[in-house]
Design goal:
heterodimer, A: Uridine Diphospho-n-acetylenolpyruvylglucosamine Reductase, domain 2, 3 domains, 11 helices, 32% helix, B: 155 residues, alpha+beta, Ubiquitin-like (UB roll), 5 helices
Chain lengths: 297, 155
């Protein structure tokens, strides 16, 4: 019988020590929706789960209109769409939080866990990237912060070193002229892994795009920040033509694989389609229109 | 040899201490350590919702919770839904609408539906279907289940 221990630190320092001691066999446990399956099925050789949810910083939601939002890395999706400040100021976060798994999964699954799982198709990661998320990391050598677009380094791989874990993710305050949207394509209505996903964020001066970020997922070894899409938009009016240029930039940036979920051709096509749709809907949100996420939350 | 531990939690309103293995999930602890077999094992990896329970009032898949994590928590299983007065309206509606065929998904659907009605006493059909998307019925008796949930909401 496999030995699998659960430890429950109450401070960041204690968690660092336990993760460091455990080496490769120790993993942080947030919502557990991925790591519990992986550990118990012995997909990876994990013998210590460090449950980080007793550490207050890991489940806190802090909002300030000037400095922005910080969410504890282990905060479940359920807490995010139950938080009026997040709902009002970061609707794209709600887009992702309400799309991941079913209600029971959302009761546990977290943005920090999704980021650290570092799947190319992680449904919170493009959203975190376009909202300029920064992962606040603690470890044996102190604290450091990494922009989310630089966090993942390959499928299931990221910048975390031994003993390090993500404490929280910070997002700057939203701009009154800004809006963001996340969308995912799957072959059914709900409950599937993305064939392609995308998020866009824009800030507008009238009809002119002052600032933009576009991110696409499940079309490369890591979720991508598409600089070419932003370049196609910034300083220009938001028209069908400029949106199309951004969509083409996403298509060019995508380097997908063929697998059971979709073909290279389909994924490249979807990169453009979802870039176009998220940009259109981000712009509508920027102009004050209420575009609901999905479902009954 | 695995490590044993004592877990203290509130299960269906009663304080309880139980002995479990460190590697046990909450689902295994409920069924094999505590003897509450109403909660079912389907996929054991978070896809099917058969093992749905409420943990501190929140719907979770008990196969994806480690038993060690419920220390100090309040857990409600299907056995905890009925009251001294008998079945709650949701359970009664499942009976009246014949919202079960083989029955193995039923405890999970009941617990998930209870969580839905606690959060949203008057869901639309769309909201009910969306909320219950994480619960699978292999007999595909979804229409009857949804009818029962909406009937209970009216009650």
């Amino acid at each position: 019988m496999q030995a699998l221990k659960v430890v429950r630190p109450t401070t960041i320092a204690e968690a660092i020590e336990q993760l460091n001691e455990g080496g490769d066999g120790a993993r942080p446990l947030a919502g557990g929706t991925d790591v519990i399956v992986i550990a118990r099925a012995r997909v990876r050789d994990i013998d210590v789960l460090v449950d980080v949810k007793q550490i207050p910083e890991l489940t806190a939601i802090e909002w300030d209109p000037d400095s922005g939002l910080t969410i504890g890395a282990a905060t479940p999706c359920y807490e995010l769409y139950g938080n009026a400040d997040v709902v009002q100021n970061y609707p794209a976060i709600i887009d992702s939080a309400t799309l991941i798994g079913g209600t029971g999964i959302q009761g546990r699954a977290s943005f920090g866990g999704n980021l650290c799982n570092s799947s190319p198709s992680g449904d919170t990661i493009p959203t975190q990237i376009v909202l300029e998320g920064v992962a606040n990391i603690a470890g044996p050598n102190g604290e450091r912060s990494v922009p989310v677009e630089d966090f993942c380094t390959g499928p299931g791989r990221n910048v975390l070193g031994q003993g390090e874990f993500v404490v929280s993710i910070s997002f700057p305050a939203p701009d009154a002229s800004g809006g963001a949207r996340f969308l995912r394509f799957i072959p059914r209505n709900e409950m599937d892994i993305a064939v392609c996903n995308a998020a866009s964020a824009v800030k507008l001066d009238g009809d002119t795009v002052r600032w933009a970020r576009v991110s696409i997922g499940a079309v490369a070894p890591t979720p991508l920040l598409v600089q070419g899409a932003a370049d196609a938009l910034v300083g220009k009016p938001l028209t069908d033509e400029t949106i199309e240029a951004a969509a083409e930039a996403s298509k060019d940036a995508a380097t997908p694989i063929d697998d059971m979920r979709g073909s290279i051709k389909q994924r490249k096509h979807l990169s453009a389609v979802l870039t176009r749709r998220t940009l259109q809907q981000a712009a509508r949100r920027a102009r004050g229109e209420d575009i609901p996420s999905v479902g009954g939350h | 040899m695995t490590d044993r531990m004592i877990v203290s939690a509130t299960i269906n309103g009663e304080p309880l201490e139980f002995l479990a293995d460190q590697r046990d999930s909450l689902l295994e602890a409920l069924r094999e350590r505590i003897g509450l077999t109403g909660t079912k094992e389907g996929c054991n990896d978070g896809n099917c919702g058969a093992c749905s329970v409420l943990m501190d009032g929140r719907l979770v898949n008990s196969c994806l919770v480690m038993a060690a994590e419920v220390e100090g928590a309040d857990v409600t299983t299907v056995e905890g839904l009925a009251t001294e007065d008998g079945l709650i309206p949701l359970q009664q509606a499942f009976l009246e609408e014949a919202a079960l065929q083989c029955g193995i998904c039923t405890p999970g659907f009941l617990v998930a539906s209870k969580a839905l009605l606690d959060a949203n006493p008057n869901p639309t059909e769309y909201e009910a279907r969306y909320w219950l998307a994480g619960n699978l019925c292999r007999c595909t008796g979804y229409d009857k289940i949804i009818r029962a949930v909406l009937k209970a909401a009216e009650a």
